[in-house]
């Protein structure tokens, strides 16, 4: 873990460019996603159910005239307690030209990470496939799971997009 | 000055399409026997504008074809040729091909090169027929006027720029020899030998023959338009010596027949970038209003050249695409409306100069600018082109505003007594304003239905000719407005209905006379508003629908019919797929495909079609459409804690069932008897896996739906109300959901899903079939 702090030795110019990430918690895990994919953050409101949708698709909400599907990542990945409190937050993502909302326990921070700080994740199997993980990063002793949110949301697993338009 | 022309392509395509449409409309209006010169001029101008801009943008195929078309039109409007019906046919056909070319340039479809060739040949042929007055060559647009045979020697001033091939070979020499054989030949100007082979020639020929005798040869060595022949007769060139290929501003009336193509003196003209340094007598000049006017100085023929000057445009002008040096013409960007002050004197003045000194710069002849400026200017000022996306965005925002306003109002009413008087009155005011705003924003998308109707005179004309019928088309209510997206989608179904009326409805003239009707059939096309709908009627005074024949045909096809069916029901059979009573299949209709597609298309727009018919009197098809695609008349229904919208047009009736009404088939599928018919029961909460308010059938409501003839009874918890809802796409951000066609936002800001009735009815049918 020596090279993972802000003072790590950069190897190239590209590695110097820090990207900003939004971090959020699901249960006791912390995730980081590219902030440029985030459109806004809003409180949770009861969505309209969609018939016969998988349980982690909570339904659709009206976001200023746009119909936006809401995904609960906690249900999808079996993380933490599924409860909706006034602090439950929906991150509205703008991915592949679509607007998608995702329910998380809380939003923590916006952090800067350079590519060197993101270390490859060890190979493990689980519901959260490693192909959606860009790597792991440590900030102030906390481990962040840096997620390829675009790939995750457009994957067939999420059942958000018709197969025809699915990309991975 | 490399300007990316492609950014203007779209404008060009739209404009050209408009010109083509205008041309077609005018052609159809034209009285062949006694054409109105104004109309002829307008047709000519449309062709002229297309040619000009096509050249500017480098669409040479378009430019060349329109050029030939224009030449013939020009001769007709100058009454050198009489207008004949076959010419109108050729023009219309040519217009179709031009439209194909435009489409092809936009990447849609391909142009039939052979057809283009054929129509060009036909136009040339038409143009060379009847050599009444003077010139025979159509490709020349030669200006020589009607004073043809004066006897004695005629002197021609021949100017041309040979193509590179003929200039390098001995084509020019051969031409000169041939000309010399006709009479006395005098070379006035020739390019500096060796410097540049392609160059400007001017010769004078005195001979006894007309120019038809040598025009072909000249045309052979020079490109179309890169040559001209002037007859040196005082009267000849007076009003139309100069010709050119230059663009007008669209729709500009061109009052003087001799159109010149030069900037009027006084306009700053810069030729800075253009002139081929080696003595071609013309150049392509870039218009740069802010550049100091430079004296025109093409090295060899001073000032003679027909120059190709860009009109001073508001856009930084386009580089003429014709980079080939040696082509004696240029293409000009459409001229935007120009200030009209420097008008009439300039127009008159240059004309005499043309006569006496065709090789002087005096050929510069400003057009009648005064006349053109005002209409063009007013037309462009009164409307703007805005992308549909922007309008849709605006409509969405206003939709949002309406919802927000409704939410506010709801909150205020919940406060009841506590709400301050001023807040309430303010909210009422807001409600009125938002409604007005919504209405006016919606009206932006509205277009008069004449956009669709205008194509039908042509359809009727072509078809009636083909079928040997005499048909008159009457349209009313062309100004009725409906949504642009509907306009685009209604065109095909309507065309089909009209073709159908023409083919099956209207009888042949003999039959009509025998039936005591006028030999000329009438098709009426009517559009009007009725309630929240727009109604389009296609009526004919033809034979009417033969009820017995339809019934017989239906039995033949194994459809369930009975003699007790109402006329309406019988007539609706013709919308069944593959149904045709035509005795023989024509290439117009009768194959039985079509009416079912018509009905499906209209239903997909949320509309419906009805038929009224009386044997021997006529048929009337009535199409009812919602005013806009974005709004739907819906019934909101409650299932469990959810609200769904059921499109009202599918709802037949609703009633509260008794427990015993519902029977089961093999203990699985449920059916209910409604007015003697057993309908499958679709229990919505089961379909959507919801917890119902009550599982008891007697506590809920049955809604009978009819989707494309498939009926089903939908069991819901309650009917909530009837609304007009704005349709939102679910697929934009999510995916297709079976049984759901879209979503909408209710007054409280919540999303309600719109049921896909056809899919649900289909589900019901398949479940019954499985059980049975």
UniProtKB/TrEMBL annotation, chain A:
Name of the protein: Chemotaxis protein CheW
Pfam families for this protein: CheW
Localization of this protein: Cytoplasm
Keyword DNA-binding set for record: no
Keyword line: Chemotaxis, Cytoplasm
GO biological process, one term: chemotaxis
Domain CheW-like: 18-158
Upper taxonomic lineage: Bacteria, Pseudomonadati, Pseudomonadota, Betaproteobacteria, Rhodocyclales
One Gene Ontology cellular component: cytosol
Annotated source species: Dechloromonas agitata
Lineage: superkingdom: Bacteria
Coiled coil: none
Keyword Cell cycle: no
């Amino acid at each position: 873990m020596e090279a993972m702090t802000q003072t790590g030795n950069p190897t190239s110019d590209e590695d110097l460019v820090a990207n900003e990430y939004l971090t959020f918690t699901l249960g006791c895990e912390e995730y980081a996603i590219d902030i440029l994919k985030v459109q806004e953050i809003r409180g949770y409101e009861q969505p309209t159910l969609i018939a016969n949708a998988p349980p982690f698709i909570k339904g659709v909400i009206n976001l200023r005239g746009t119909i936006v599907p809401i995904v609960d990542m906690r249900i999808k990945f079996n993380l933490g307690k599924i409860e909706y409190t006034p602090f439950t937050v929906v991150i509205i993502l703008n991915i592949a030209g679509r607007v998608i909302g995702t329910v998380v326990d809380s939003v923590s921070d916006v952090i800067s990470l350079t590519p060197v700080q993101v270390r490859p994740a060890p190979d493990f199997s689980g519901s959260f496939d490693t192909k959606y993980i860009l790597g792991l990063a440590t900030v102030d002793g906390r481990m962040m799971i840096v997620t390829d949110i675009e790939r995750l949301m457009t994957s067939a697993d999420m059942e958000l997009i018709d197969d025809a338009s699915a990309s991975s | 000055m490399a300007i990316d022309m492609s950014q203007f392509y779209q404008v060009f395509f739209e404009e050209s399409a408009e010109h083509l449409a205008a041309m077609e409309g005018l052609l159809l209006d034209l009285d062949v026997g006694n054409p109105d010169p104004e109309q002829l001029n307008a047709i000519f101008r449309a062709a002229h504008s297309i040619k000009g801009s096509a050249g500017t943008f480098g669409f040479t195929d378009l430019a060349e074809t329109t050029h030939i078309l224009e030449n013939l039109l020009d001769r007709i409007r100058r009454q050198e040729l009489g207008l004949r019906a076959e010419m109108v046919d050729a023009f219309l056909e040519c217009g179709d091909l031009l439209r194909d070319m435009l489409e092809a340039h936009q990447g849609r479809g391909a142009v039939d090169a052979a057809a283009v060739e054929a129509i060009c040949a036909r136009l040339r042929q038409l143009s060379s027929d009847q050599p009444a007055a003077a010139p025979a060559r159509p490709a020349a647009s030669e200006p020589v006027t009607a004073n043809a045979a004066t006897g004695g020697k005629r002197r021609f001033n021949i100017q041309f720029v040979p193509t590179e091939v003929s200039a390098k070979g001995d084509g020019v020499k051969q031409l000169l020899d041939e000309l010399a054989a006709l009479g006395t030949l005098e070379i006035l100007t020739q390019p500096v030998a060796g410097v540049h082979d392609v160059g400007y020639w001017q010769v004078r020929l005195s001979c006894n023959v007309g120019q038809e005798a040598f025009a072909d040869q000249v045309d052979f060595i020079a490109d179309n338009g890169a040559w001209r022949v002037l007859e040196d007769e005082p009267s000849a060139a007076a009003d139309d010596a100069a010709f050119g290929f230059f663009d007008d501003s669209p729709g500009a009336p061109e009052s003087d027949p001799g159109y010149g193509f030069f900037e009027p003196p006084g306009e700053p003209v810069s030729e800075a970038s253009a002139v081929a340094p080696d003595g071609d007598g013309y150049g392509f000049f870039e218009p740069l209003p802010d550049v100091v006017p430079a004296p025109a100085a093409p090295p060899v023929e001073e000032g003679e050249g027909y120059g190709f000057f860009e009109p001073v445009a508001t856009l930084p002008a386009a580089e003429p695409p014709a980079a080939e040096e040696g082509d004696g013409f240029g293409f000009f960007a459409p001229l935007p409306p120009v200030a009209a002050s420097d008008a009439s004197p300039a127009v008159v003045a240059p004309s005499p100069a043309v006569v006496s000194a065709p090789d002087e710069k005096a050929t510069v002849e400003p057009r009648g600018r005064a006349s053109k400026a005002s209409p063009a200017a007013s037309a462009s000022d009164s409307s703007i082109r805005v992308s549909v996306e922007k309008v849709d965005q605006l409509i969405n925002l206003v939709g949002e505003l309406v919802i927000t306003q409704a939410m506010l109002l709801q909150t205020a009413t919940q406060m009841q007594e506590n709400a301050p008087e001023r807040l309430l009155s303010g909210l009422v005011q807001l409600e009125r304003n938002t409604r007005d705003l919504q209405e006016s924003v919606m009206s932006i998308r509205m277009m008069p239905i004449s956009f669709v109707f205008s194509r039908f005179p042509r359809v009727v004309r072509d078809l009636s000719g083909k079928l040997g019928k005499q048909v008159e088309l009457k349209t009313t209510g062309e100004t009725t407005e409906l949504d642009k997206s509907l306009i685009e989608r209604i065109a095909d179904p309507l065309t089909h209905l009209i073709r159908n009326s023409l083919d099956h409805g209207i009888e042949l003239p003999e039959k009509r006379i025998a039936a005591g009707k006028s030999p000329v059939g009438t098709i009426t096309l009517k559009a009007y508003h009725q309630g929240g709908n727009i109604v389009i009627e296609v009526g004919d005074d033809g034979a009417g629908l033969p009820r017995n024949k339809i019934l017989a045909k239906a039995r033949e096809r194994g459809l369930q019919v009975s003699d007790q069916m109402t006329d309406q029901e019988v007539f609706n059979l013709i919308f069944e797929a593959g149904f045709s009573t035509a005795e023989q299949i024509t290439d117009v209709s009768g194959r039985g495909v079509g009416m079912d597609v018509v009905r499906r298309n209209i239903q997909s727009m949320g509309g419906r079609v009805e038929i009224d018919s009386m044997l021997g009197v006529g048929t009337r098809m009535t199409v009812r459409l919602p005013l806009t695609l974005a709004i739907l008349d819906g019934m909101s229904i409650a299932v469990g804690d959810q609200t769904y919208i059921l499109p009202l047009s599918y709802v037949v009736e609703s009633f509260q069932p008794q427990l015993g009404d519902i029977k089961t088939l093999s203990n699985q599928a449920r059916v209910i008897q409604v007015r003697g018919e057993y309908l499958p029961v679709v229990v919505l909460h089961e379909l959507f896996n919801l917890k119902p308010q009550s599982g008891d059938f007697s506590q809920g409501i049955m809604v009978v739906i009819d989707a494309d003839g498939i009926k089903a009874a939908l069991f819901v918890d309650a009917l909530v109300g009837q609304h007009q809802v704005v349709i939102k796409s679910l697929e934009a951000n999510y995916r297709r959901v079976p049984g759901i066609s879209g979503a909408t936002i209710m007054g409280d800001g919540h999303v309600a899903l719109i049921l896909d009735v056809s899919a649900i009815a289909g589900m019901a049918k398949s479940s019954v079939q499985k059980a049975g």
